[in-house]
């Protein structure tokens, strides 16, 4: 089940909201837990059993880790069991096929191994589980005594299948007690509509253009068309993922939860380091907290810094998918970040802002080529087309026609990826505070109307990060 579907919007969500508020505080967590398991089982009926098993095992491990009579040796053993189970499930379902095919390719064997289907959102909820177990082991938090609350933390449907990754410590108190007001519900509903519009009105439309470019034969893609296409994908993946995060944060508010922001206008950044402080913040924070800092972070010598960065970014790449192009993508950004930390950090401050911004956009857009193409030959051919290294034309009539036809869409997407619309809204609020409320209501009603109209009329509705 996806948020940008008519069933979710007009059936699932209204029923859950009604039950949540009518049944009162005593049953609110049971309603949310039941809804979350149903939400997951809708798309993965068999894998809901895996999730339930994971909940019980990690709840028991957390309880054992938190007991005063558990010896240090046993605590370490229980912790290792939890790590092996959680990472083992992730490795089997997500990486088994890649490992076997890689071994078969190296050995020249013609193996035909049936790989297991990938449980939706396994990377997201596995990292949430790990944050809980690791923090209990460290003594940073106490184990959750209630199995229902522990299960709710792991399965909460607003951010279950595509994040943001929520650390247990951030919502521990909210699980048991949270305030619910009309103002918070209204704010959450507006945030949900904002994310829905990002997804169906921007990401899906600009994504259609990228799909057309990607399907073109390599010798027919001009330099202009190649850049127009990969820029379209850069905008699609931003609005697709940030739109989902907005919807998740909005739904959380509607049920009384406060989730941290996951995106802060990453394309306005002026360095690679800043970009990754603004993009998929919850994932970057997770790797920083549980991998980078335990390895020593940046407070080490250059050789260890190189090691730490490449370990984190190799893992970041593989987290996104079981394909070597994701490892290449991770190492690409690891190299760029290392170069900034060791050589460019000080000198970049003297560059004009426009130069820094162009530098950032150039390397990020190129990086999305590594991310999108799983086939190495297709990746290299597209890069050749982008830089005119083959027989591809510089500019062609087809590219000009496509750009003209989609010029307005590009402009809207580019402006929407900046804080300018929000700044204009705040400026309007200051000078016309009385009229602002009416205008805002009309705006969100329009977002809902056009989003629903698109969902009724269109069948193109992928969520890019669902496959991770």
Automatic annotation (TrEMBL):
Pfam families: MBOAT. It is found in: Cell membrane. GO terms for cellular component: plasma membrane. GO terms for molecular function: acyltransferase activity. It comes from the Bacteria. Its main location: membrane. It is a multi-pass membrane protein. One of its GO terms (biological process) is alginic acid biosynthetic process. InterPro entries: Ac/AlaTfrase_AlgI/DltB, AlgI, MB_O-acyltransferase, MBOAT_fam. Keywords: Acyltransferase, Cell membrane, Membrane, Transferase, Transmembrane, Transmembrane helix. The chain crosses the membrane at residues 5-23, 46-65, 77-96, 116-134, 146-169, 221-239, 310-333, 354-371, 407-428, 435-457. The keyword Nucleus does not apply. Belongs to the membrane-bound acyltransferase family. This is Transcriptional regulator.
């Amino acid at each position: 089940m996806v948020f940008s579907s008519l069933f979710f919007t007009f059936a699932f969500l209204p029923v859950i909201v009604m039950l949540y508020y009518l049944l009162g505080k005593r049953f609110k967590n049971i309603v949310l837990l039941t809804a979350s398991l149903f939400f997951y089982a809708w798309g993965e009926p068999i894998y809901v059993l895996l999730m339930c098993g994971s909940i019980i095992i990690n709840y028991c491990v957390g309880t054992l880790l938190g007991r005063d009579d558990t010896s240090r040796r046993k605590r370490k053993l229980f912790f290792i069991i939890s790590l092996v189970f959680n990472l083992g499930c992730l490795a089997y379902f997500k990486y088994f096929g890649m490992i076997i095919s890689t071994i078969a390719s190296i050995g020249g064997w013609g193996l035909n191994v049936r790989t297991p289907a990938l449980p939706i959102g396994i990377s997201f909820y596995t990292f949430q589980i790990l944050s809980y177990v690791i923090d209990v082991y460290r003594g940073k938090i106490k184990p959750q005594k209630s199995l229902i609350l522990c299960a709710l933390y792991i399965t909460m449907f607003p951010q279950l299948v595509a994040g943001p990754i929520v650390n247990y410590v951030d919502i521990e108190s909210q699980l048991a007690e949270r305030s619910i007001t009309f103002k918070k519900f209204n704010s959450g509903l507006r945030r949900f509509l904002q994310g829905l519009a990002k997804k169906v009105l921007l990401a899906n439309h600009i994504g259609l253009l990228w799909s057309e470019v990607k399907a073109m034969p390599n010798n027919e893609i001009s330099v202009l068309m190649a850049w127009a296409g990969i820029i379209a994908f850069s905008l699609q993946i931003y609005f697709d993922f940030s739109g989902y995060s907005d919807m998740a944060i909005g739904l959380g508010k509607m049920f009384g939860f406060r989730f941290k922001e996951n995106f802060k206008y990453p394309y306005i950044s002026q360095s690679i380091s800043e970009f990754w402080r603004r993009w998929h913040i919850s994932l970057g924070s997770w790797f920083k907290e549980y991998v980078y800092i335990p390895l020593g972070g940046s407070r080490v010598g250059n050789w260890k810094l190189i090691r730490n960065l490449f370990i984190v970014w190799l893992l970041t790449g593989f987290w996104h998918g079981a394909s070597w192009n994701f490892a290449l993508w991770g190492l690409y950004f690891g190299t760029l970040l290392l170069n900034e930390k060791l050589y460019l950090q000080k000198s970049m401050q003297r560059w004009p802002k426009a130069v820094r911004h162009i530098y950032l956009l150039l390397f990020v857009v190129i990086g999305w080529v590594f991310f999108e193409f799983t086939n190495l030959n297709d990746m290299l051919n597209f890069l050749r087309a982008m830089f005119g290294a083959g027989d591809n034309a510089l500019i062609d009539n087809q590219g000009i026609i496509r750009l003209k036809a989609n010029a307005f869409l590009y402009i809207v997407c580019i402006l929407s990826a900046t804080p300018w619309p929000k700044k204009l809204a705040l400026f309007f609020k200051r000078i016309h505070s009385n009229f602002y409320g009416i205008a805002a209501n009309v705006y969100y009603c329009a977002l809902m109307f056009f989003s629903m109209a698109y969902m009724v009329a269109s069948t193109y509705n992928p969520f890019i990060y669902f496959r991770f």
